Amino acid sequence: MMNGHEISVFSLIISENQWTTYFELQFQNEVADFARLNNENTVMLLAHCRESEPLSRMLLLEYTSNGTLYEPLHCYGASEKTREYEPNSRPSIEKCQA
């Protein structure tokens, strides 16, 4: 972005004949869910975009470079990250190390 902050963009481009009311409703629900979240453990929705030519939908989210929750829960680097998690996360990480 112009202010130097990095962002994540999730983009969906699909032909109009494949786009259904159900997909539009799902996109709107996703936007509403992200807009309601206000927690330090979740990414923040910065903006969303709905274009009709070509049909596309985008979510602009704050960027986090700390990896994903999938990695420590599925044994990728779990040993280095164990001490960073709260005590209630340890059973999942220890299970990965077993």
UniProtKB/TrEMBL annotation:
Q: Which GO terms describe its cellular component?
A: endomembrane system; membrane
Keyword Transmembrane listed: yes
Q: Among its keywords, does the record have Transmembrane helix?
A: yes
Q: What is its main location?
A: membrane
State the superkingdom.
Eukaryota
Q: Which InterPro entries match?
A: Kinase-like_dom_sf
* Membrane association type: Single-pass membrane protein; Single-pass type I membrane protein
Q: Which UniProt keywords apply?
A: Membrane, Signal, Transmembrane, Transmembrane helix
Q: Where exactly are the transmembrane stretches of this chain?
A: none
Compartments, record wording: Endomembrane system; Membrane
Q: PANTHER family in the record, alphabetically?
A: PROTEIN KINASE DOMAIN-CONTAINING PROTEIN (PTHR46084:SF19), PROTEIN MALE DISCOVERER 2 (PTHR46084)
Q: Any idea what this protein is called?
A: Probable LRR receptor-like serine/threonine-protein kinase At1g63430
Phylogenetic lineage: Eukaryota, Viridiplantae, Streptophyta, Embryophyta, Tracheophyta
